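Honest question from a wet-lab person: if I give you the sequences of every part of a complex, can you actually get the arrangement of the whole thing, not just the pieces? Trying it with mine:
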Amino acid sequence: MAPRPSAPAPRLEHHSLERYEAIWFGIATLMAVLLFVAAIASFISGTYTAIEGTGGGHHITGVESGRLDPRNLAATPFAEPGLRENPDGTLEAFVVARAFAFQPATLRVPAGRPVTIHLTSADVMHGYQVTGTNINATAIPGQVTSFTTTFRRPGTLSLVCNEYCGTGHHNMVNTIVVEAPGTQNQTE
Amino acid sequence: MGDVAYLASLKKVTQFYIVTAFLALFIGVLIGPLQALNYGGINVYEWPVIRNLLGSYYQGLSLHGVLNALVFTQFFISGWMLYLPVRDLGMRINLRFAWFTYALMTLGLLLAAVPLLTNGATLLYTFYPPMQGDALFYIGAALMVGSSLLVVGQVVHTWLRWKRANPGKVTPLVAFMSVATWMMWALAALGIVVEVVALLIPWSLGLVGGVDPLVSKTLFWWTGHAIVYFWVLPAYISWYAFLPRQAGGRLASEPLTRLVFVMFLLSSVPVGLHHQYADPNIPNLWKNIHMFLTFLIAVPSLLTAFSVGAALEDAARARGGRGLFGWVAQLPWGNAVFSAQVLAMVSFIAGGAGGVVNASSSFSGVVHNTTWIPGHFHITVGTATTLTFMGVSLWLIPHLTGKRLPSLRLASWSVWTWFFGMMVFALGMHWQGLYGVPRRSQVSAAAVDAFGNLPLALPTLLTAVSGVILLVSAVLYFSVLFRMLLSPRVDDGEQAAPLPYSEAISPAGESLATASPLVRATEPLLALWAAALVLVVLMYGPVMARLFAEMQLVPGWRLY
Ligand code: HEM
Ligand SMILES: [Cu+2]
Ligand SMILES: [Cu+2]
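Yes, you can. This is the full assembly:
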């Protein structure tokens, strides 16, 4: 494929190529670093619910270093899944995922108050995704996943299992009801 | 063995790898459109034909993932990156060993296929425990993946022999890229090999009472992220070394190309925790460190975009192209070998950008395990890699066998429809994912419609349509491929379809003594390999040590 003699186009040569390379290398590295800075800023300011270390600051009976025995949930608060209010006014919710439903099937939480959700699985892995939010956590048998979040607006949200867990996986859908402040005490 | 017989046998073993790869892709890809229809709201899994062939949506999906992502890629790459460095170095290898490796890899595949086909391993290609499959699945998978390490051994050994015979010489580029990629893969594969051999096989045989799902998952993603570079670097080899020639131009810079591969060797592996932002009991500090390294590894891919872009511009100008962007029109778009690879690259610009976004912990919660993710990897491995390999097959098979491509026009149609279909697919799937539609879910058969009130009509339609386009594309491609393979041998492949090496604008030179500092710094691959190992140990060691120390074994389940 010889160049057309009538149209001598300038072709790239070694030196200008090297210069452009160096500039592009700089831009690429800068973009990577900026991206990291942005993600860390988001982590620190809490715009997403990062999974916290063992228990999310709460001690859980029967749970050691974030681990428990899935055959013996009875020894832990997961025996009675649901929301509870601690004497200091903090809220904790215990959720068990098992094929193919979450317990409780409907979790009721008050709007506008931080809730620490503790999640585990009784059998295989499951996912915990609340539609319309960025809450997305893995339920693992033998492990407790904890995170703290605040549901701002009252309403009903879908809780979807997003980790393959067997034949009924696509039917593993439950709900979270976010109640306007002041109404939640009547429902329990 | 004479030279002629030796070369014939080397080509034959390569051809066996490549053809096995495409047979796996053929079966795997036929299942894809059914899944696309599922996400188009159409459930075809109750149709008698399909019910007789696939036990369930999830069995089909396990086959699709394993055959496409694990079998097709590994077999193609094993053939491709055995043949290329051996030819590039001009060395003789022990062909008995090469055939033995191929046979072992195929045996592993066949063993794993039995439970996959009999619903004994409907675990999806990630096989997360404690969902449990037949022991045969894990044994077959270990043999198959383990065999790729024998290819690593043979290629690295061949390169070392060449080094000894050629002191002071610069390793030629294609061999350099292949050896660096194999070295990276050897480190990457450790995770999955340890997981399967040390944890899952004893567990599935009943020798131990349980398994720690988090330890297993972490080991899986040790391999599972780096494997994406194992899928894409062999395509880069073609984009750097062969595509410029096929476009009528020159490779941009050999030293820079070597730097890119060394960057991948060093930092492909210690990044896997970005798949585990949603998992408990892994400190956020380590998740963030892996995130940082993941962003850094975007740099060599951005350098690749630069180099390949420069090479294409060089080619277009040589063909009379002018203007800032007008030169694009001068490229040989009608040539399927060329257009497949360039469309693969275009797809990778979108896919790569999406990949960087996915790696951010701040965005992960929105898209983790939604259809956004399969949307993403069908324009990376499913197009950047697959379409490149499809394009490569159109010259490589004539080169290896002396057969001729039966129809350039049909080949061209298959390439363009694949690209177009995958773009539509990616749009539909990314879009649905933003609304939280979960991946790996037979949503078309769900009893509860969790998404009924969301505006999903258009993305759902796009996904369904893309499945049909891709089915047409696959039928076109495989009819060309099989007609070619079944046709008689007419040419001498060495003459009719020689290896398309490209000339370089900035070559690396032949002698290390006179080479640039960058070339000299990138030459000692063994030392760089050791450095990469140290980096992996530093970045994974503390996390793995804690996970092992706090193991919590749980029993297995079969819920499929
Ligand atoms: C005809 C072309 C194809 C179509 C229509 C297609 C369609 C799909 C769909 C809709 C899914 C999502 C299923 C789900 O999450 O439930 C999927 C998953 C997947 N596809 Fe494809 N695909 C095609 C080709 C490919 C190719 C060429 C590759 C790789 C080389 C590939 C690799 C995968 C993998 C690894 C998964 C994930 C499986 C899992 O989640 O376990 N696909 N495909
Ligand atoms: Cu599930
Ligand atoms: Cu990854």
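Two things worth pointing out. Residues 50 and 147 of chain A are 7 Å apart (CA to CA). The radius of gyration of chain A is 25 Å.
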